[in-house]
Write a structure and sequence with these properties.
Blueprint lengths: L4 E3 L1 H7 L3 E4 L4 H6 L5 E7 L6 H5 L3 E12 L11 E4 L4 H11 L13 H17 L3 E6 L2 E9 L2 E7 L8 H15 L4 E4 L6 H9 L3 E13 L7
Parallel strand pairs: 2-3, 8-9
Antiparallel strand pairs: 1-2, 3-10, 4-9, 4-10, 5-6, 6-7, 7-8
Helix pairs in contact: 1-5, 4-5
Length: 228
């Protein structure tokens, strides 16, 4: 019998429970989630019938929109007075991360305590720091935000609350997107929740176009140790 449960150890270390991505929405795959304890993630087309998902205990968590940009469609934007750097204080990056990612799908999951959702994003950012996949925005001598990427994917764009609404994010993202295109990628893509309107607007203004959307469902068998 085919195994439809793909372990996600990067989530397990944050939630202190076995975690899986379910690779199919077929009934056979959904049945497999009934046999073990753990937290499960399933991504589906928004037009897919969700009757079986509810039958097997899945609940809606978030929607992800995928903006993409071809190099020839990129619309760069420049602004004076900002600096990009791969040399930064990691504690300042982590401080921004701790505050910036409060609307993600794990924060919206009523089964996951907020402190564990926070830890999941913090762990991810620490991994990206270790892999040297973060570019920092320096403004007025301070770390104002950061951008994380991997190959042709834009993973994170975060601004310190002190510097939001100042028009810095567009110029910052523009510079970083140019850096990725210079690495030889003909197309860049990212994934953004529609609740994050600010990021969506930034990338659309740079020439990104919305290609598709994905609905994300979660399921929990057992319990998550709230004190973990």
């Amino acid at each position: 019998m085919e195994n439809y449960l793909q372990p996600t150890p990067w989530d397990k270390r944050s939630f202190i429970i076995d975690t899986y991505e379910v690779t199919s929405s077929s009934e056979e795959a959904l049945k497999q989630t009934n046999n073990i304890e753990g937290h499960f993630t399933l991504k589906i087309d928004p037009l897919e019938n969700t009757e079986n998902l509810k039958k097997y205990g899945f609940y809606y968590a978030d929607t992800l929109i995928e903006p993409i940009c071809k190099a020839e469609n990129f619309e760069p934007y420049e602004q004076q007075g900002i600096e990009m750097s791969r040399q930064y204080d990691r504690n300042e990056i982590l401080e921004i991360a701790e505050e910036a990612f409060k609307g993600g799908r794990f924060h919206r999951d009523f089964n996951i305590p907020n402190h564990m959702a926070d830890r999941r994003y913090m762990n991810w950012v620490q991994d990206l720091i270790e892999k040297d996949l973060i570019i920092a925005l320096i403004y007025e001598g301070k770390t104002a935000g950061f951008y994380a990427y991997e190959k042709d994917k834009i993973l994170l764009l975060a601004m310190s609350k002190e510097y939001r609404g100042k028009g810095l994010a567009k110029a910052f993202a523009s510079y970083c997107v140019q850096e990725q295109f210079a690495m030889g990628h003909p197309i860049l893509k990212t994934s953004i929740s529609p609740s994050n309107v600010a990021s969506l607007n930034v990338f659309i203004s740079l020439g990104f176009r919305l290609r598709k959307s994905t609905d994300v469902y979660h399921k929990l068998n057992g319990s998550i140790p709230y004190g973990g």
